[in-house]
Amino acid sequence: MKLTIEKDELLSRRFYLVIFYLCAFFMATITFYSLYVSLDEYLNTGKVIIGEVLVNTEFPVKGLAKLVTYLMIVSVVAWYCVTKLGADKVKNIPKSVRSILQLIVLAILILSIYEFFYNFIIWNALITADLINGELRLDDLFMPYPNPDTPWNLVFATKMSLAALIISAHGFYMISKRT
After folding, report:
1. Claim: this prediction has a pTM higher than 0.85
2. What residue intervals traverse the membrane (predicted)?
């Protein structure tokens, strides 16, 4: 019976490891593609909207999911796999260190909550303003803040801040439940 449980745990660990490496591969591929296209755009036009290439690229065919959606999903799934793989390693962290980490993760959680709602509200306001003018541009909206020279696409900013919110909330839960 014990051998079966150990074998099952090993299979489970291998599964999480394979999924993590697949997610890491997809994150790296999407990131390098985005950097390449954005750098090319910047060199040709002198301007770039952060995240725009990920919002405008649908994969594998037009009409399917955007790269930013894949990036958001694989980021969260990779984080989950990391927590499943590393749960045993962090059990023995001293309470003082865990308390410091808990405060750091709480600060990240608060920041990601703010960023998600900020981006979502700005995006919603710009969509509403466009609708009043008789337009509907969901994916082309961007925020030229904090630097007008490098605006952020609001779909990208909202989805990635949502991923950060989910990851930090899960991280805060995981580190808090151990205290």
Report:
1. yes
2. 15-36, 63-82, 103-132, 152-175
